Amino acid sequence: MIGEGGVGKTSLLSLLQGREVLEKRVPTVGLEVEDSVLNGTNCSIWDLAGQERFKFMWQDFLRGAGLAVLVCDSTDKNLEKTREIYDRFMRSIGTKIIAIANKQDLPGALSAKEVQKKLGGVKTYGMSAIRPELRQRMKEILEYETEMD
Questions:
Q1: What is the reported pTM?
Q2: Which end of the chain is flanked by fewer CB atoms within 10 Å, N or C?
């Protein structure tokens, strides 16, 4: 998972793993790696820190990944930065890419369809990491997208 700081990458991972998404959020330092099971197969999910000082390592971690998940917070301001991330890191890695338009529960959030259009057609799913009832949907998205390889 890759994206700017504060967009909900760690919260999405917590949702996927069935953990409570805490209200008090602590920025990821470097990266977090967690094991999960998708389609009956063990896999590692990498949550890459979004702060500028860690971006130098993104390309190395993304190369060879089975699926890159570009996360944005569904705001116009963040979407500009997310598009820059896509243009700078994602186009050249040769890895399948999808986007998660997180924070769909917030007023004024751009729809997944709008985010997809602004990202130049990158397949985009809407999500709200703070809603535990969406855990299965998040898992199904990742399973479907990794199955399609």
A1: 0.86
A2: C
